[in-house]
Structure formats: structure tokens, C-alpha cells
Amino acid sequence: MRSWAVGGGVIFDSDLLLMVHNHRRGGRTDWSTPGGVIDDGETVLEGLTREVKEETGLLVEGWSGPLYTVSAEAIDMNWTLRVEVHLAKSYTGEIHIDDPDGIVRAAEWIQRDDIDELLEGQQLWLRQPLMGYLNNDVPEDGEYRYRIHGSTNTDLRVERIEV
């Protein structure tokens, strides 16, 4: 079973939230907050800071959180995912994408009220936790848990696991 540790960053500029447009294998695209896989030897915050710099050009000078966490298990695809999402306290720099993975193709400041529409049709384990946070409706323990069935984008069935 493959396992990934991921850091996600919520970065606000007034009422604008920074979102990145990702181009995945197989031609699928999605929007998310910036962040990515934590490399061996990195803490979540070290990896998150590196990923945000690569994907957006911004240097985050401090984080608070986690705001929430996401655990997902894709049984048929043989992987698990653990995401910690943190809030940027402050940042410097201008938007400039230098993603060595070539996944992030755009970074845009989006009105907070437009995020729900932007995430329409996105993966449940990305959309639901972010919208929960934005709507002040995060589970008491801060954890979102999902089980994913299926092995292709066309046959995925995602269930949220309530504890």
C-alpha cells in the first residue's frame, strides 16, 4: 500500500483565497489550495512551505493550524493519503509558478464566495473539507475521513466515514 503525507496551505489576501489549477495524469484537472507531497526528512510545515514557494512563488513566513486534516484510503488503487491543512499567517512575494512536477499551471486569487462554484465536481475529499472550513463547519476533531472504491476516474465511489 502506497502512502502519502501531504501539506495544504490556505492563503488569504483580504477576502481572496489563493487557489492553484492542477493538471493530473490522464488529462484530468482540478483546483486546490497550494501544497503537495512532503518529502522524506521534511516536517509537514517545511514541505508545505517548499511546495507553496514552487507552486505560487510566495514565501510563507509562518503557519497556524492544522485547520483540519483529511485521511483517504483508496482500497482498489492500493493507496492512502493523509493531508494536514494549515493557514498562512503572512507571506511575501508575487505569484510566479515554478513547479518542478509540472502539475500546477495557474495560481489565482479567488473571491471566497466563488470557491464553492469553482470546486463543483471536484473530488469530495478536497471540496468538502475546504468548504467546511470556509463555512465554519469542521468536525469537532478536525478530521475528515474518506474511503474510495473503484480504480478509474469514471468508476470512483467516495464515501465519507463518520466516527
What percentage of amino acids are in beta strands? over 45%
Structural class designation: alpha+beta
Please list the strands of the largest sheet in the order they lie side by side: 5-1-7-6-9-10
Radius of gyration: 15 Å
Q: What distance separates the N and C termini? A: 23 Å
Helical proportion, percent range: 10-25%
Q: Spans with pLDDT under 50 lasting ≥5 residues?
A: none
Alpha plus pi helix count: 3
Describe the sheet with the most strands.
Answer: 6 strands, mixed
Please state the overall shape, judged from the principal axes of the Cα atoms: globular
Summarize model confidence as the mean pLDDT. Answer: 94
Series of H and E elements: EEEEEHEEEHHEE
What's the total number of strands?
Answer: 10
Brief rundown of the structure:
The protein has three helices and ten strands. It is α+β, with helices and mostly antiparallel strands and 163 residues long.
